[in-house]
Amino acid sequence: MRIAITGAAGQLGQALYRMLAAGHELVPLGHDNLELEQPGCVQTLVATGAQLVIHPAAYTNVDGCARDPDRAYRVNGLGTRYVALACQLLDAPLVYVSTNEVFDGAADSPYLEYDRAAPINPYGRSKWAGEQAVRELLHRFYIVRVAWLFGGARNFVRTVLRLAGERTQIAMVADEIGSPTYAPDAAAAIARLIETPYYGTYHLVNEGVCSRYDLASATLRLAGRTDVALQRMALADYQRASAVPPYTPLRNLAAADLGIRLRPWEEALAEYLREISSVH
Ligand SMILES: NC(=O)c1ccc[n+]([C@@H]2O[C@H](COP(=O)([O-])OP(=O)(O)OC[C@H]3O[C@@H](n4cnc5c(N)ncnc54)[C@H](OP(=O)(O)O)[C@@H]3O)[C@@H](O)[C@H]2O)c1
């Protein structure tokens, strides 16, 4: 199948490229050849002749989105509308990658695909606008929500490793709870999903639930950096531009129904850290 991938240089974009390259004809679109802030991106996408479009490109800096909500909405909301319009013209299904941050974080058990979205920050609102554009304009789409993505060059796990190289003591938030997602695992699940005709909304996170503190702790342990003292801090004491939904673990109910399962996050993290250490 001829597949166009937006955000091809990003964390998930690269994992998707590696996962799909053997079996498909890929058209990777980086930020330099597809600008979501310009309506002309519709024509750029149509010119690829894609039979399927996978759209992980986004303005993913959550605090940046809080400082510039218009840009968040232009890239993640309107930009996704343009991608969906291109899919209409191509008569191609769309995979739109969305986020745990469409939820308000006030739940006390993991969110299912059909739980009510109620984003509390500009990033979440802009990604939800993207979801709505997809649902309004297309009837063949997979909306895939991932969370706490790691696997590329810039992510929370990398930040923990960098801080461990700079300090003897680190503090991490213990009351922000979520579901980490290893980008290659999400890419493998998407590769299976697009072979099915079961369009709709999916959660695709690694199995399990943890806090930022737990994820940092496992990272330091698996990287052999238990010499670094890790302390707990409260979300309320962590000053940042964006509001944070405190509890947003996801449960992959719809994918499990198709037999698509992701391994526990600790196993995926161990593999990622092995991969990083073999490169250095
Ligand atoms: N990262 C997470 O923890 C997380 C959690 C939940 C959901 N998600 C979702 O998962 C998807 C993939 O995330 P990721 O971590 O792989 O993102 P990423 O590494 O930040 O990659 C995003 C890509 O989109 C490109 N992009 C940004 N603005 C653009 C624009 N205006 N026009 C065209 N391209 C643009 C970026 O290019 P530049 O670098 O040149 O700007 C980058 O290559 C996103 O849709 C995100 O919302 C991510």
Detailed description of the structure:
The protein is α/β, with parallel strands linked by helices. The protein has helices at 11-20, 41-47, 62-67, 69-90, 122-137, 156-166, 183-193, 212-222, 253-257, 265-279, and strands at residues 2-6, 25-29, 52-55, 94-99, 141-146, 149-150, 169-173, 177-178, 181-182, 200-203, 210-211, 229-233. The strands form four sheets. Strands 2-1-3-4-5-10 form a six-stranded parallel sheet, with helices on both faces. Strands 6-9 form a two-stranded parallel sheet. The protein contains ten helices and twelve strands. It has a domain at 2-149 and 181-207 and 250-262: Rossmann fold (3-Layer(aba) Sandwich), CATH 3.40.50. The two termini are 35 Å apart. NADP nicotinamide-adenine-dinucleotide phosphate is lined by residues 7, 9-13, 31, 34-37, 56-60, 75, 79, 97, 99-100, 127, 146-149, 152.
List the helices and strands and how they pair.
Elements lengths: L1 E5 L4 H10 L4 E5 L11 H7 L4 E4 L6 H6 L1 H22 L3 E6 L22 H16 L3 E6 L2 E2 L5 H11 L2 E5 L3 E2 L2 E2 H11 L6 E4 L6 E2 H11 L6 E5 L19 H5 L7 H15 L1
Parallel strand pairs: 1-2, 1-3, 3-4, 4-5, 5-10, 6-9, 7-12
Antiparallel strand pairs: 8-11
Helix pairs in contact: 1-7, 2-4, 4-5, 6-8, 8-10
What's the quick description here?
With 280 residues, the protein is an alpha/beta fold.
Descriptive terms for the model:
41% helix; two-stranded parallel ribbon; 6-stranded parallel beta sheet
What best-fitting shape do the alpha-carbon axes yield? globular
Strand content: 15-25%
Terminal CA distance: 35 Å
Q: Tell me what the CATH architecture of the domain at 2-149 and 181-207 and 250-262 is.
A: 3-Layer(aba) Sandwich
Name of the CATH homologous superfamily of the domain at 2-149 and 181-207 and 250-262? NAD(P)-binding Rossmann-like Domain
Mean pLDDT over the full residue set: 97
Q: Write down how many β-strands occur, each being a DSSP E stretch of 2 or more residues.
A: 12
Counting helices, strands and paired strands, the structural category is: alpha/beta
Strand order of the largest sheet: 2-1-3-4-5-10
**Helix percentage range:** 40-55%
Can you write the helix and strand succession as a string? EHEHEHHEHEEHEEEHEEHEHH
CATH fold descriptor of the domain at 2-149 and 181-207 and 250-262: Rossmann fold
Q: What CATH first level of the domain at 2-149 and 181-207 and 250-262 would be assigned?
A: Alpha Beta
Low-confidence stretches: none
> Count of helices?
10
Radius of gyration, CA atoms, in whole angstroms: 18 Å
